[in-house]
Amino acid sequence: MHSNSKRCRLHSEDNLAGIPMQKRVSLWKNFFPPLAAVLAGMCTTFLITFSILLSLPMVKMEEPQKAALLLNRALPLIFLALIPVAVLLFSYSKRQTRGMTYIQECLKRFSSGNFDFIPIDNSSGNISLLCRELDKAGKGIGGFLNSMREEKNELEAILESMAEAVIVLDSNLLIEKMNSSARNLLYESETVIEKKSVLDAFRNSDLHHLTQRVIEEGKPCEQEIVFYNPVKRYLQTRASLLRENDENGISVRGVILVLHDITRIKELERVRKEFVANVSHELKTPITSIVGFVETLLSGAVEDNKLALHFLSIIDRQVKRINSIIDDLLSLSRLEQVEEGNMPIALHLCFVKDIVSGAVRTLISKAAEKMIEIVIDCPSGLKAGVNPQLLEQAVANLVDNAIKYSSRRGKVVVLCTSIKDEIKISVKDNGCGIPGKHLARIFERFYRVDKSRSKALGGTGLGLSIVKHIALVHGGNVSVKSIPGKGSTFTITLKVGSGLEF
Fold it and tell me: Which of 87, 187, 344, 429 is deepest in the core (most CB within 10 A)?
């Protein structure tokens, strides 16, 4: 028996040893008030009853009337003794109720997402401890949610600032989200397209097949896709899986599509290929001619002086043509470097009429061969901040073209006007004109309306392209108006106050 009692005492001490001191104090504070009240009431009742018994004369307890008298005298005193007990119990109950009310308010704030202020019960006990723990938990949850909200806003800002189009599909391959670049690139309509399939939203089977393929293969897939909406666009598209962790392990949550518009790159590649092909063709033709005549001379024609001189004159003409092509290509290269800011350009305040007169002066003899009249209509006091050599080259190219394509005894007019902050230099001829379908492309390199006629007239196919780039480096532009059979008018527009430094 003594052994069992000892084991129980040791077991109780072991249990208490497992409870932290703070918890022990909290439990003691929590249960002490009601326990003290009950003990006080019991002691008071006992003392009152005992004092009554001592104050009464000795009676025989078996007499009923004496016992009733004793009870009647003791009841009021017992009731009075229990009043403090009731007050203490009521106070304790009220304190507990107030703590529960605080907890209820905390939980209401939690449910509404407000974790900033948590009311704390200043009384002691488990309720106060619970309120403090709720306060800590609320602050922790609030901080975590704020952090998640900031990360979400940051990701959305990054997504919206991306130049690439981004489309997020859910597990059913329906559109869940897309950034503004995707909307601008693929879908200009205001119709809501979320929760639609890629095929329904964009009517593009290649994009639909790409999303199917990334699901089947389980790895990122990339493909060049052509869109027509409404213009033709080339989009380098990469599809990747969105994965998430759940109770079953890693699962596929959806697909993310990143589309990069490479239309401009494709266009530059096309222009590059055309340029290389055109340069090769333009250089190969005179070189082939030169090689042929040199071989003829080497095979014995050199002994015939008259024939040799004829062949040499042709070779000289072809060499000059090659030299002209190379000079024009170098001019274009320098102009492009100026446009890109890689090469400075010297600008001076010049009289426009002096520049135009210098350009016309170099072509007087050529115009005289076809008896073409050149008229300059330009105010003497008109000034502009330009590079005089480049502007003279541009005007000379336009006048040279006008002479080439004008009929004999024709007329070429160079007109200079100033309207507000712009200066316009127009070159007008009464030649054969240009069909409307060619007007959009005549400023491209090596583009010719009539290839056979242009080559016969000795053009390189780069003159108008040089004019366009000269206008661009001056902050201006060049335009054309033409009526087939009546002539053409080319106009260079320059800004007078374009902010260029002299």
Answer: 429
